Amino acid sequence: MKKQLLILLLFTASITVKAQSYLGYFQDNYAGVQSVLFNPASIADSRFKTDINIFSVSGSVQNDLYGVRLFDVYKDGYDFDSQAKRTPSYANNGQANFDVMGPSFMFNIAPKHTLAVFTRARSVSNVRNVNGYLIDQVKDGLDQSSNFNYNAGNINGASNTWGEVGISYAAVLYQKNQHFLKGGLTAKYLQGGVNGYVQGKDVKVTYVENTANPQAGVLASSGEITIGASQDFEANEDYDFDSGSRGFGFDFGLVYEWRPDYEQYDLSNAKPADNNFRDLNKYKVRFGLSVTDIGSIDYRNSKQDTYNVTGIVTQQMIDDADNLYDFLNEHYTKTSTSKGAKTNLPTALHADVDWNMYKKFYLNLNGDINMVSANKVNAYGIADRVSLTPRYESRWFSYYLPVTWMEYSGMQVGSGIRVGAFFIGSGSIVSNLVSKESKGADFHLGVKIPVYEKKFKDTDGDGVIDKEDACKKVAGPAENNGCPWPDTDGDKVFDKDDACPDTKGPVENKGCPWKDTDGDTLLDNVDACPAVAGPVENKGCPWPDTDKDGVLDRDDACIDVPGLAENKGCPILDADKDGINDKEDDCPLLAGPIENKGCPKVSKATLEQLRVEAKSIFFTTGKATLNDARKGETSGRLDAIKEILKNYPNAKFAINGHTDNVGNAKANQKLSEARAKVIMDLLISKGVDPANLTSQGFGATKPVKSNKTASGRAENRRTEIVYLGNL
Question: Where does the OmpA-like domain lie (predicted)?
Fold first, then answer.
């Protein structure tokens, strides 16, 4: 009985179950419904159509007092007290884990929305602040001990077992270019099972042996012990579940993914076979943050007893006690309550960073932080943890190697594998195989039915996936169920578009041969007027007669004005208004009488003006060149003559040259001819029609004055312009 009492005071029963399940597995993109336990946002935009968990289990145990070679523990005759390596302190701790996941599933309800429903059975216990030195001292039991004086300290322990049904909803919250954010929430209904807890405050125990009378030995103790349970452990040994104990809890989380190659996954460029890229992990780096197990269970029938164990009892009193509770009730002051108790869930903060190093190789850094006070009565939580996990991941196979620092048990290395529907692993198996001082062990395994998103098969590459393709090996359009359109006449116009499916014809005529509808020898495809016959040179169209004058436009010099055929379709005009139409008018722009064919007559005044102008043209003496000294005046006279002559386009004029009788007659004749021709050439150069001019020289044969006087000879040296009549 002494040993039972001391064990109670020390609360050395340190096996616990905690919330850190599936270590190394849950960060896998193909973890499916198990990943929702760590972060409910993880199931949104997952690689699953659905994931059905048949059965999975995860368990762990760790402490900071006993270090063992794990597989020696199962050998016959193994003794913890003598063979394990102990590292006692005044506040040793111990934990263990057991988590059973029953039938559970997740599925996509829309491209950006996912649901999960799961069932779990869990049991959680913690023991903290155990005096490890005291455990070492009493390992052989009190019956072999003599006098002792022990300080049990402020031990605190709690244990809870419950079941839960959860529903999780996750959705894509934001998506733009390389940024992708999703969130999730889990609501859980909790059914309480068995809950028990103990807490000590400044508990000290002293035993004084009486060698003369062992039954008179004295056990003195001080401090306070609180014991609570959802069942009456005193009254019976059948611990039925309290069906009236229930509660609610929830988890929430966010996941951000950095997708630098987002353009590769642009849905506007996705082919049907790509399945909107749902089968691909698109991130380079993923960040996750979540809080889980917020909530509590209300044990309405829970009973709590607080004992003030300050006092002295004898060895005889201890030996006479039937059970531990009778002993405590008989010898110590007790304060009891039956109002029930609430026990928290193991609330924790989880963080996760996942780096896609290269193709299917990943490196994950994740950790847990306990958010439950270690000194609270009936409180239990997780151990703080940090894990670095490299992994290879594909749809049907994953291998992972977690390296973990765990509060209490220290560093550990594990390994795990997922093959198809089965997964198994441990976060500590490697270190447990090689270490002689393992302080923790864990495992997980499960069987599930995964239904993955995958790229659709398109054998013929026609953009119609095989399951919808009526011609899987031959490319064809979607509107024809993936089969090519037939082309009966082989004219490269599919029958669906061919107006003449049995006769070859060009594409531009809907697969029909060209016709000559108007019979003008031009086929309709080159006939600009296929319904009206016309000449080939006018592209099969009849020549137009725009002004309706009977002269076709091709022959009509005035296509917009009616005219006569003999005038090339133009009207007969009288531009100079002299009553003679332009066709018969030798001078259509100058008014003139009919008898002069519409040209103006050369008047005496005009001839006089010509005489005056011609008289004033001066030559170098004895030569047929203009006088340089008076060249400007001469040019002006020629311009005036030109302006007069152009008014008589049908008149013929002669340029006559004359000399005096001084000198040789033959020389004078040639000089007069040359001077006349010079004047004629100068007028022609200024624009006078050569047909209107002739030149002639008379030498001294036609004097107008007497050559006997100087003034007479001057008058005889002259140039004249004479009107000869009409052309």
Answer: 606-727
Q: Are 404 and 23 in contact (CB under 8 A)?
A: yes
For residue 24, the tally of other CB atoms under 10 A from its CB is 26
Just give the CATH number of 2-452.
2.40.160
210-230: burial string, b at 16+ Cβ within 10 Å, e else: eeeeeeebebebebbbbbbbb
List, by residue range, all CATH 3.30.1330.60 domains of the chain: 604-726
Q: How far apart are CA 570 and CA 588, in angstroms?
A: 15
Summarised one tens digit per residue, pLDDT across range 20-75 is 678 889 899 999 999 999 999 999 999 999 999 999 999 988 888 888 887 777 77
In tens, the pLDDT along 187-215 reads 999 999 999 889 888 888 887 877 777 77
**CA nearest neighbour of 565 among 578, 544, 577, 550:** 550
pLDDT at residue 412, as a whole number: 93
List, for residues 262-305, the tens digit of each pLDDT value.
999 888 888 888 888 999 999 999 999 999 999 999 998 888 88
Phi and psi at residue 241, to the nearest 5°: -65, 145
Q: Phi and psi (nearest 5°) for 216?
A: -95, 5
Q: Which residues contact 264 (CB under 8 A, 6 or more apart)?
A: none
Closest CA to 529 of 517, 514, 512: 517
Which tokens is 331 given? Answer: 């010898």
Furthest CA-CA distance within the chain: 204
Q: How far apart are CA 693 and CA 474, in angstroms?
A: 92
Instruction: Give the integer Cα–Cα distance in Å for 601 and 649.
Output: 10
**pTM for the whole structure:** 0.66
Alpha helices in 383-453 (DSSP H): 429-434
pLDDT band at 388 (very low <50, low <70, confident <90, very high): very high
Q: Which 3 state secondary structure label does DSSP give 311?
A: strand
Entry field: residues in the chain = 727
**For the chain, where do the domains classified as CATH 2.40.160 start and end?**
2-452
| ∠ CA 71-74-75, rounded to 5° | 100
Backbone phi and psi for residue 204, each to the nearest 5 degrees, phi listed first: -130, 145
State the Cα angle at 11 between 7 and 14, rounded to 5°: 115
Give the span between the Cα atoms of 176 and 417, in whole angstroms: 35
**DSSP string of 631-684?**
HHHHHHHHHHHHHHHTT-TTEEEEEEE---SSS-HHHHHHHHHHHHHHHHHHHH
Residue 611: its H or E element: helix 604-615
Superfamily of domain 604-726: OmpA-like domain (3.30.1330.60)
| CA 162 – CA 346 distance, rounded (Å) | 12
**Cα 482 from Cα 173, distance rounded (Å):** 37
Decide: 34 and 101 in contact? Cβ < 8 Å: yes
- CB neighbours of residue 518 within 10 Å: 18
CB atoms within 10 A of CB 579: 12
Whole-angstrom distance, CA of residue 642 vs CA of residue 272: 90
Cα gap 463→484, rounded to integer Å: 13
Cα distances (angstroms) measured from residue 302 to each of 17, 180, 272, 336: 21, 47, 60, 11
